[in-house]
Amino acid sequence: MKEIEPIVITGSGVVSAIGLGKAETLKSLLEGKTGIGEMKYLSSSHHELPVGEVPYSNATLIEMLGISYDAQLTRTALLGRLALKEALEEANLKTDDLRKIPFISATTVGGMDRRELNYLNESSCNLEEAKIATHNCGDCTKMISEQFGDFASLSTLSTACSSATNAIITGANMLKCGMADIVVAGGSECLSLFHLNGFNALMILDHDQCKPFDKERNGLNLGEGAAYLVLESLSSAIRRKSKPLCYLSGYGNACDAFHQTASSPEGDGAFLAMQEALQSAGLNPSDINYINAHGTATVNNDQSESQAIKRVFGENIPLLSSTKSFTGHTTSASGSIEAVFCILSLIHQFVPSNINWRTPMEDGVIPVMDTHPSIEIRNILSNAFGFGGNDSSLILTKYEN
Fold it and tell me: Which residue out of 161, 210, 246, 342 is catalytically annotated?
């Protein structure tokens, strides 16, 4: 039986409310600087709801990309292109290389932002044509990729808030099955009225900056952004003389199907996903040094995730924080965005603080507030839990020659 090769990450790119690219992102994480504030670019009447917007207009994003204006380009695609560009450049992948590389992108909102504009201008637009041209999630994947060349294949995942993590897991499985030597995977999501109003209807949006794992938490803030990872077999990275950023050492996915939107009180799906990730990495719970929690700051999620973490780690819970207090909940893109945060944590040996936390919740976990841990960060567990109980976890491990 062929031995399964280690998987390394050789490129990563990110854009969110706290920065365009990894350098700006790292600075914001180290300084504890949130990107959540009053909405500026989303045309909503609900300015009482803070959001984590990428602080650039579509016109500015187009200028940054050096492309011509295209009325069909969605904000999801623009954000995705910026993140993908950074990831491909870091991995030193050229246009000709992409012909052998699958691209897996996650989104749920897709082109809803363009659809809403067309709907609002119904008298001057053919709605059906606009829907076909911009709305489909798969079309967003195509829009993101086409600036860089022809990938071997395009795939789109949509499993709500675990989407980008599941895209990464799918890419890892393709590497393990020998379907490719390199895969690019992640997700992109922009804010939309559908998005904002839908979560508002569930009454789970905070009117202040969110407070993950705090006793006084009162809901999440929505955010937007994109991130992509270049996953590669270790032998491919050595052959290409690429410098690995870290290992993707383990992952797990489970679905408890407890409720359409709520997590189970015991955190069954989350528990199973974390447990599977540890088993696939060949690690014990005591090997994990930091947990990047899903931590949405909703009453239900933080209590459920706390119970799941306690079931896995017992009394010896690692350092833990939710970075959604920086970016807002970027929904389908959150898993890959937070994976990039974890890569930065491994490389620069820090832990993002759980900003806005003040008071311990009853029977909950205690997040970390100090960015400078007294221990080496070698293994990080990153959680992403979606509606319907579709729960996924990744384990990223420090790379050493």
Answer: 161
Domain range enclosing 334: 250-398
Considering the candidates 190, 195, 329, 342, report the single residue annotated as catalytic: 329
Tell me, yes or no, if 161 is annotated catalytic: yes
Contacts with 147 (C-beta within 8 Å, 6 or more apart), sequence order: 65, 67, 81, 85
Query: What's phi and psi for 37, nearest 5 deg?
Result: -170, -165
Within-domain flag for 43: yes
C-beta separation of 376 from 319 below 8 A? no
Tens digit of pLDDT for each residue in 262-281?
A: 667 677 889 999 999 999 99
Indicate the burial class of 376 (C-beta count within 10 angstroms; 0-12, 13-18, 19 or more): exposed
In a domain, 304, yes or no: yes
**Is 329 a known active-site residue?**
yes
Sort strands 182-189 and 222-223 into parallel, antiparallel or unpaired. unpaired
Q: Flag whether 222 is in a domain.
A: yes
pLDDT digit string, tens, across residues 184-214: 999 999 999 988 999 999 899 999 999 999 9
First to last CA, the chain: 26
Question: What's 4's DSSP letter?
Answer: P
Catalytic residue of the set 140, 190, 294, 342: 294
Q: Which position has the token pair 């794992």? A: 213
Overall residue count recorded for the chain in this entry: 401
140 is catalytic: no
Rounded Cα distance, 75 and 58, in Å: 7
Q: Name which of 13-22, 139-148, 239-248, 249-258 the model is least confident about.
A: 249-258
